[in-house]
Amino acid sequence: MKNSNRHLWVSAFEQSSDQYLSGILKELATRDSSLKISGIGGKESRAAGLQPLFNAEELSIMGLVEIIRSLPKVYLKLREIKKFLRTNPPDVALLIDYPGLHFALLPTLRKCGSRIIYFIPPKVWVWRKKRIQILKKYVDQVLCIFPFEKEFFEKEGLAVQYVGNPLLDQLPSGDMNNATGKKQLAVLPGSRRQEIEFHLELMSETSARFEKQTGAQVNFSFPNQFSETQRKIWSDRIKQIVPNAEICWGNSHAIMRSADYGLIKSGTSTLEAALLGLRHIVVYKLNPITCFILLHVLKIKQFAGLSNIILDYEAKNPPHFKELLCSDATVEKCMNALQELHDSEKLKSSQSNAIHLIREKMKVNASPTQLVADSMIAELEIGRASVQSFSIIKYLSAHLWNAIHQFRLVFARPEKLPAKVISVGNYQMGGTGKTPFVLELLSEAEKRKKSVWVLTRGYRSSSEENGWVVTPGMSGLTIEQVGDEALMIHNKFPQVPLGIGRNRLESFASLKQKLGRVPDWVILDDGAQNLQIQKDLEIILMTSDRVGEAWYREIPGAVMKANELRIWTKGNFSTREPMRVKIQTVFKQSIPAKPLYLVSGIAKPDQLKDSLDKLGIKIGHHEIFRDHSTWSPELMKNLLIQSEKKGFALAMTEKDFVRVSDDSIKKQIWVVDSEINWLSGRSNLERSLD
Fold it and tell me: Hey, which end of the chain has fewer CB within 10 Å, N or C?
């Protein structure tokens, strides 16, 4: 269901980013036309429906020197954006490229409680690697457009997804098509005014010499965003040097697709050229001071052209496409590079092979635009943060419990079991989605045809102290015997043996004696603080609640075990974990037409209500009971009467439902269940389970 109150902030300052954003906005409109979308964008995103705070062209600046000159204007615009965000906090923010300005917005967005997606992250694999820490601190999801970036960012501990390159959505298919019979040179000086000014004379004089030497047709291509006056100025300057040149506005893909060679300013256009099958050389000029800083102060050694970066981002080998940068970008050197590309069959073959490899590396199984929209919708479902209040009692209690646990570790002598032991637990006291995750692991064991036992505590049941084993085919179990979590597991996986009790070693021994065998896997439910058994894989489920906001038994980061996987499950704050799941609310039956009379006895009832709100399900009344409450027949009859009086549908979670003993009342209850929906990192779990 749609929720018209949901607010997105989107931000794209550059022309290529604006093109990508326009496609994303169109895709979002097909998903939910009621979304409120605000932000900064250019002509194309405005045409796609964005009502901008101001136009992106006002802050499209390149080069270090140029940025310094524009600082007063940038400062005022940033103040305007931050003021808007504070008064109109978005649920989700999508920032596209342009880190110079977007990084300045990250703290404000975080204070607003917004979920933050960074699409096309800064090239920290080239320079300014300290920016990784900023991404880890503020950004919830990184969406990258180069295949090598996924592995790079995952190693740094960020939640990252390779969504393919938006160019894959935009470029025409098929190989180049030169129908004129005459060699053609595509010349692309840039997409911004300053870039064009730097490159226009250089590229005009180079192409004039190339035309004279080879007889090639020269075709200049520019974006169509400039005024008629500016177009005439540049056209006149080109015609003075290359009288026979064709000058096109906004038709670069067709120009590149029909050309034989390219003289291309470094940037997105170099990747476009490769994907369109165009052999080319890469040129880039900047203000001499900026060039000096880049080459001699910052000592940037990586390639400039994206076509080269895709193939070898660490620049360990010579570039496949010649690069002439800064002081090397002269008419003489550009002409020599083009002439070599024209004359050398070996070089032509080498570039053709490189183009094929780039195309293969860039493949993705879905539209990049769709994948970005998917991520935004997923983050919307998580929603904007409701900041938890800090409690000094919770804070001190967490450190006390942690100290006790660390003391116990000194004397621990865990026993090795004859099976792979997978522990599922948490540092917090409930509310992390532990039982749905155990069920997820049981589904995985079923797929892999692994025999599995579950050792669980049986909280508040008679088995907690006395012990109990549940074997396949056993029926008639009650909450009093085994507890709600064990009963939920048994109801969904009746073939899985359960060992119930506080002493997990005794539970394992009882199952072994009863069944006369051992399993492939043992799942240790709520096993984070269990020191009896040696664990092969330690899965820790985390929420965004920080120490001092929730009750903690261990301090995150106090000890990081080699076999530990941390998976972020709930909440709204930024996570440093690359593994994330959403605990998805679902109904066993169809969604009731009447408002819900919701009753819950779980650790975090507010999160349950929020998730139902996000599904657009109306809750007429929500009554909260303590965690692991007992639902007596008398209480349930009274709740049913109250719900009927109000015309509401009585609803409760699966965890609560299994504790209801009256079968006649069970038939009148709507059950809210939970299941795991992976957002990122499932491959990490699969590798750990192998």
Answer: C
Q: Which two tokens stand for residue 532?
A: 């009896």
DSSP 293: I
675 token code pair: 């299941």
Task: Give φ, ψ of 45 to 5 degrees.
Answer: -70, -30
Q: Any residues with CB less than 8 A from the CB of 452 and at least 6 apart, and which? A: 441, 442, 445, 496, 519, 520, 521, 522, 523
Identify the helix (H) or strand (E) that includes residue 119: strand 115-119
Residue 42 and residue 55 in contact, taking contact as beta carbons nearer than 8 Å: yes
What is the enclosing helix (H) or strand (E) of 506?
helix 504-515
Closest listed residue to residue 517, CA positions, set 563, 479, 471, 554:
471
Q: Cα–Cα distance between 271 and 306 in angstroms, integer?
A: 5
Distances in whole angstroms, Cα of residue 291 to Cα of each of 126, 295, 297: 15, 6, 9
- DSSP E strands in 485-547: the ranges are 498-500, 521-525, 537-543
pLDDT at 559: 64
Contact indicator for 212, 223 with CB cutoff of 8 Å:
no
Given a contact cutoff of 8 angstroms between Cβ atoms, the answer to whether 56 and 102 are in contact is: no
Measure Cα distances from 539 to 437, 455, 579, 686 in Å.
Answer: 10, 15, 11, 12
Given this model, what pLDDT does residue 583 score? Answer: 76
Distance (Å, rounded) from C-alpha 637 to C-alpha 644?
11
Cα gap 139→159, rounded to integer Å: 9
pTM of the predicted structure, to 2 decimals: 0.53
Distance CA 264, CA 266 (A): 6
Task: Give the ranges where 190-299 is alpha helix by DSSP (H).
Answer: 193-214, 228-241, 252-258, 268-275, 288-292
The low-confidence residues of the chain, meaning pLDDT below 50, are 1-3, 64, 387, 574
Predicted local confidence at residue 463, as pLDDT: 92
Count of alpha carbons within 13 angstroms of residue 162, beta-carbon side = 15
Give the Cα separation of 557 and 561 in Å (integer). 10
Residue 413's contacts (CB-CB under 8 Å, 6 or more residues apart) are none
597 bridge partner residues: 621, 650
Query: What does 597-627 look like in DSSP terms, one character per residue?
Result: EEEE-SS-HHHHHHHHHHTT--EEEEEE--T
Burial 206-239 (b: 16+ CB within 10 A, else e): bbbbbbeebebbbbbbbbebbeeeeeeebeeebe
Across the strands, what pairs with 55? 41
Distance CA 111, CA 79 (A): 15
Q: Nearest to residue 97, comparing CAs of 46, 156, 142?
A: 142
CA distance 132 to 153: 8
Contacts of residue 560, Cβ cutoff 8 Å, sequence gap at least 6? none
Contacts of 570 (CB under 8 A, 6+ apart): 431, 432, 433, 543, 544, 583, 604, 607
**For residues 526 and 427, is the Cβ–Cβ distance under 8 A?**
no
Is the separation of the CB atoms in 436 and 674 below 8 Å? yes
Contact 639, 650 (CB under 8 A): yes
Question: What are 413's two structure tokens?
Answer: 């002598």
Give the CA diameter of the chain. Answer: 97
Nearest alpha carbon to residue 189 among 229, 228, 221: 221
Residue positions counted in the chain? 690
Between β-strands 670-680 and 580-587, what pairing exists: parallel, antiparallel or unpaired? antiparallel
pLDDT of residue 1: 39
Q: What is the pLDDT of residue 388?
A: 58
Q: How far apart are CA 233 and CA 315, in angstroms?
A: 38
**CA separation for the pair 643, 651 (Å, rounded):** 9
